[in-house]
Amino acid sequence: MDKTCCPQYAIRCRAGDFKMNKSHKKTVKMVHRYINQGLKPGEKTEEAAATVSADTKNSSKKNSGSENGTKTEGKGGQEKKHLEKCPTPGKGADPSKPPCKKAKLRRLEKKQEKMAQKLQQGDVPEVKQATSKEAATAVPHKVEKGAPNAPKSLEELLGECTVENPAHKLEIKLVQSSPQSNEFKDTFDQSYGVYRRYQMAIHKDSPGNCDKQGFKSFLVDSPLQSMKIPGGLEHGYGSFHQQYWIDGKLIAVGVLDILPNCTSSVYLYYDPDYSFLSLGTYSALRELAFTRSLHPKAPNLEYYYMGYYIHSCPKMKYKGQYNPSFLLCPDTYTWNPIRQCEPKLDASKYSRLESSVEKADDNGRVTLEEVLILHDNQAMPYAIYKAIKPRAGNEAEVRQYAGFVGMKCAKRMLLYRS
User: Fold this and answer.
1) Beta 249-258 vs 262-270: how paired, if at all?
2) pLDDT one-digit tens code per residue, 249-265
3) H-only helix segments in 38-181
4) Beta bridge pairs of residue 121
């Protein structure tokens, strides 16, 4: 990583604690506005368009009248108009009067006055009066879930897509891609067609680089084994495609791996004709909500992995907007809050993200004799392999391999040696 021009850091978000920002909410509302009302970004309803048209006509009439008046006023009228446009400079704040209070402080004082009135009537217990400094640093009361002014959760906001008689019908389906389910096979040609159009329009790939075999090896075939646990997830664990359908037409596909401890976003491709819906952001929010929905039946499944974060690349840097997110330190393999990592990455593309100087990668301490080897169709620790083939002379390679994967994996995986 320290040698590449664009270091890639693994990134994950703790799905249960995810908080939407204004941009996320705006994207969700934009998509739902299209689904419910059929309006694309920038378009308005007929009623709103009629209102804007009427206001424009009234405004033009007023402007026309003022222009006619200006022509008949002569020089005096023009001077008067000039004076109105250029007010005399002020003298500044009056030093004999106290400085203006902040709106936050005024609201707090007004609230305290009401509380004092209620206190005189015996309605509420006595409340300590806050000083100006305390008022300025006051933290707003945390609104309990379910309160009228509580911010909407991710699930509540996404649920607003369901209304009676929507302009479009949105369906989201999860189909298993490896091994291929019947539903996946039935929709394969449609899915490949969307992928082909996406690669050619967005990534400028040539038609020859978007064949079916390349699509299968890239996004269909998976080394993960499908697994179902009694009483666990209905669809089990493995590799899946999350399909987005509008009015019976496939418009986007999110490629997902569902693992015991996380969901991992592998790739997203969509129909370029629907790029106005910001489907990259919308699908990520849907996948976060999906990850949260799995937690009750899979308590260990709490993280949403977003692939790699590249601080110097705007197309990859957006992943840091999903809070709380964490980056993997390339030296210690510990997860660190992205907000603490950003100053370090601003200073250097490659950086040790772990703040503790003493911290080291315990899993990187290689015990060569315990590394598992596959030799002559038999699994064995490296100590036995070395006794069988004392002149193999590959200790450096095995040590490097164990350092890359870590001892935890080196004792569970098999390294083939002839």
Assistant:
1) antiparallel
2) 999 999 999 999 999 99
3) 46-85, 103-121, 132-136, 154-159
4) none
